[in-house]
Every structure is written in C-alpha cells, then in structure tokens.
Write a structure and sequence with these properties.
Layout (H helix, E strand, L loop, with lengths): L5 H5 L8 H21 L3 E3 L8 E3 L5 E3 L6 E3 L5 E3 L3 E3 L7 H4 L1 E3 H17 L15 H10 L17 H14 L10 H8 L35 E3 L3
Parallel strand pairs: 6-8
Antiparallel strand pairs: 1-4, 2-3, 5-7
GO molecular function: ATP binding; carbohydrate binding; protein kinase activity
GO biological process, one term: defense response to oomycetes
Organism: Rubroshorea leprosula
C-alpha cells in the first residue's frame, strides 16, 4: 500500500498524521471490523488487530491486513476456542486465561489502536512507571483525574477537534474495558464515533478484569488444530 502501515506514521516518523486523517483512519478500521464481525456469511475473528496490520492507501483509506491468525465462526456462536494468539499489548486480558477468541477480544484490540491513534503512544511503554506502562492504565488515570485531553499526542500541538479527541479516547477506553462483558460492539462504537449515540460514563478508576462473564470454553468445539502464536511488540 502506498501509504504504508499505520505504525510507521505514528511511531517511526514517516509523517505526522493530522487529526482529520487520524479520525478517518479509526472510522475506516471500525467499518472494516463491522464487516468482518456482522456483514458476511460467517463472522471473521481477526485476532491480531494492531497498528502494523493497518495499511493505508495513497488517500489514507484504511485497509486491515494480515489474516494469518483469523478464524471463521458462526454468527450465533461468535467465539472460538484456541490457544493464545496475537500480539502482546493488544491481547484482551481474558484471552490469557481462556485462549478464547471472540468479537469482544477483537474490539479490545480495536480500542488499543484507537488509543494509540489519539495518544501517539504504543500500547506498552516500559519507560513509564510500571503501573502506567500500559496505555489503557495511563489514559484511564488521566480520565479519572479529569485530565483526559492531557494524553492527546503532543506532536499534534493541540491542533485537533476537542470533541472528536474526547470521543475517540472514551471509545478507546470503553472498547478496551478490562471486563469482557462491559465492552460495546463495533457497531455501537461506530455510532458513538459518528456522534449518533451518547458517550459512556466510565468509572473514574480502571476496573479489574471480571472473568465471571466469560463463556464456558468447554461448550465450544473446533475442528482445526489449535495454535500458539504471540508476537512481541517492536
């Protein structure tokens, strides 16, 4: 793709993406994920949504690539038992316990990318204090301290639409909610990003993962071999 991958722009200095392009990219990614989850004959679980797998054409239209870990499931089932796969920093917390891929785990990864686009910071930054090395924890603390816009990418020099920035950050947190059952669907995320639905009222402190709402993996069968594939962020 002529525009390269999103991570080259956000983290490797290929170009400084202006705010309107960033918002267009996240909306395009959400539309791609909606198609995979809801609009085909089967639900496609991507399982590795991350900045380096988001490709951009010459007009910065979004293309989601690398389906090497993707799985097909029935729409009614919406989940898949497998061994842990994905990239650290983008893997939903419940996956470490169950290995189950779901629409919600894809939404979690989408939320991480949304936060990266808004903040210009990787999903994991070890240079920060340990409790704030996670992008989600860092943004959530700013939100709880009523300083949410302080996490906006400093490279933008405050040249962004404040309403859209707040919306993107809150959608990112909502999608990356630690509790599986509290995340919104990608269709709902699109509605909020388009200002067709209300912003969430999230708790001021980042919740702890709740495993009570995770489906029983023993009831879901797979006919394909299980796989273990975890990528470390670069």
């Amino acid at each position: 793709m002529l525009g390269g991958s999103l991570d080259f722009h956000l983290f490797k200095g290929r170009s400084l993406l202006p705010w309107d392009i960033r918002y267009k990219i996240v909306q395009g990614l959400a539309s791609a994920l909606l198609y995979l989850h809801e609009e085909g004959d089967f639900c496609v679980l991507h399982r590795d949504i991350k900045a380096s797998n988001i490709m951009l054409d010459s007009a910065f239209n979004t293309k989601l690539g690398d389906f090497g870990l993707a799985r097909l499931v029935d729409h009614e089932k919406g989940s898949r038992t497998t061994l842990l796969a994905g990239t650290m920093g983008y893997i939903a917390p419940e996956c470490y316990r169950t290995g189950m891929a779901t629409k919600e785990s894809d939404v979690y990864s989408f939320g991480i990318v949304a936060l990266e686009i808004a903040c210009g910071r990787r999903s994991i930054e070890y240079k920060h204090d340990e409790h704030l090395s996670s992008l989600v924890a860092w943004v959530w603390e700013a939100y709880g301290n009523q300083m949410l816009l302080d996490v906006a990418d400093k490279k933008l020099s405050a040249e962004f639409n404040v309403k859209e920035m707040e919306c993107l950050l809150l959608v990112g947190l909502w999608c990356a909610h630690p509790s599986h059952g509290m995340r919104l669907s990608i269709r709902q995320a699109i509605q909020v990003l388009n200002f067709e639905a209300a912003l969430p009222n999230l708790p001021s402190k980042m919740p702890i993962s709740n495993y009570d709402d995770i489906p029983n993996t023993s009831t879901i069968k797979t006919s394909q071999p299980n796989s273990l594939s975890i990528t470390l962020p670069r």
